[in-house]
Specification:
Layout: H1 23-28, H2 36-41, H3 50-61, E1 73-94, E2 97-122, E3 125-140, E4 143-150, E5 154-159, E6 170-178, E7 202-213, E8 216-227, E9 235-237, E10 240-246, E11 250-260, E12 265-276, E13 280-283, E14 288-290, E15 294-308, E16 311-320, E17 328-336
Antiparallel strand pairs: 1-2, 1-17, 2-3, 3-4, 3-5, 5-6, 6-7, 7-8, 8-11, 9-10, 10-13, 11-12, 12-15, 13-14, 15-16, 16-17
Length: 338
């Protein structure tokens, strides 16, 4: 997926975090404060009001925007499948200029198993680490195969500067550092499709906004990502050898809403777009090339199913809207308890 590879691969909903706590705690802990927002959103015995349901389901649907209490740990497993089909123009640079060689189809089927852990540093500050395990089948002209590898590990944090209140918008600042632990696309046979990582370190900063308008939760987000260069390369591309790659910065935004159909079912719809500036490539013979700007847009639809007071299973489907987006993605989110 190319939404910052998007860090994320699909963010189907922005969470409502009005109590600075996870959904599991909201079901088992009696509120100890008389604060109006806590009282309004706390689920009382025998109640099934839409606001409480939205809070719980959205927390599970996209827990990366949730905050948990100080000292608590939450684990989550995400399973995602994506398909990318492209027609790739293969070119090369010679002394006479740019030469067209061929147009070939490139198809990739990617299964990502992601394990993540959240730790409450403070009631309004949550740290996060994610470990993706990737299985990828790629088929190109003259090559096909399966690769299994660790993806890019991420370290993140979410900070809520103000106490959330029922009648005001909630703000959450996010930061994420992605480490190039996956198989780099610059250290494999060019065009083989065997990469499972981005090959460069990246730092993302963002802001998420959400507001409850019963029985709907509205949300939006903006983020910017910068990349470190990939240096010391020795990858053969056509008749040239690639030595250095500097990806351009990426700006992204998203909007959407979640709606509680019943006490056990919630739906979400969201749209995300990312615009990435062209990358700068440097070859061994001194040639410098800048690639074109890429725009990736994805429409996501999600369904949350409450199977127990503490567990909500979440399913999502994403549809690529631009040539630079994955054609199709399917996701499942499962909270883990130990």
């Amino acid at each position: 997926m190319k939404l910052s590879k998007l860090p994320v691969f699909l963010a189907s909903a922005l969470l409502v975090h009005t109590m600075n706590a996870g959904a599991q705690e909201s079901q088992t802990t009696t509120p100890v404060s008389a604060d109006a927002a806590r009282e309004a959103l706390a689920k009382k015995e025998g109640e099934g009001d839409q606001t409480a349901l939205l809070k719980e389901t959205l927390t599970a649907v996209d827990k990366q925007y949730s905050l948990i209490r100080k000292g608590k740990i939450q684990y989550t497993y995400d399973l995602n499948y994506s398909y990318i089909g492209q027609e790739k123009i293969v070119t090369d640079f010679t002394t006479s200029g740019l030469t067209l060689f061929d147009i070939e189809n490139v198809n990739s089927h990617i299964i990502t198993n992601t394990f993540s852990a959240d730790y409450g540093v403070m009631d309004n500050l949550t740290a996060n680490v994610t470990l993706p395990l990737i299985t990828k089948y790629a088929e190109t002209k003259g090559h096909s195969g399966v690769s299994n590898s660790v993806g890019d590990i991420s370290l993140g944090a979410r900070f809520q500067p103000f106490e959330a209140r029922r009648d005001t918008a909630g703000l959450t600042f996010t930061g994420n550092l992605r480490l190039p632990s996956g198989r780099s696309p610059f250290k494999i046979i060019a065009g083989s499709g065997e990469a499972t990582g981005s090959g460069v370190a990246a730092l993302s900063l963002g802001l998420n906004v959400n507001r409850i308008v019963d029985p709907v939760a509205l949300f939006g987000s903006v983020n910017v990502t910068g990349y470190a260069p990939a240096t010391g390369l020795n990858q053969v591309n056509g008749t040239r050898v690639l030595n250095r790659v500097q990806p351009g910065p990426t700006f992204g935004f998203g909007v959407g809403f979640a709606y509680a159909l019943s006490y056990g079912i919630t739906t979400t719809v969201s749209f995300q777009e990312a615009v990435s500036a062209g990358a700068k490539l440097r070859f061994e013979d001194g040639l410098n090339v800048t690639t074109s700007t890429q725009t990736s847009g994805v429409l996501s639809m999600g369904l949350g199913y409450r199977v127990s007071p503490k567990t909500t299973l979440n399913f999502s489907v994403g549809i690529g809207l631009t040539p630079d987006s994955p054609n199709l993605s399917l996701g499942m989110n499962v909270p883990l308890a130990f």
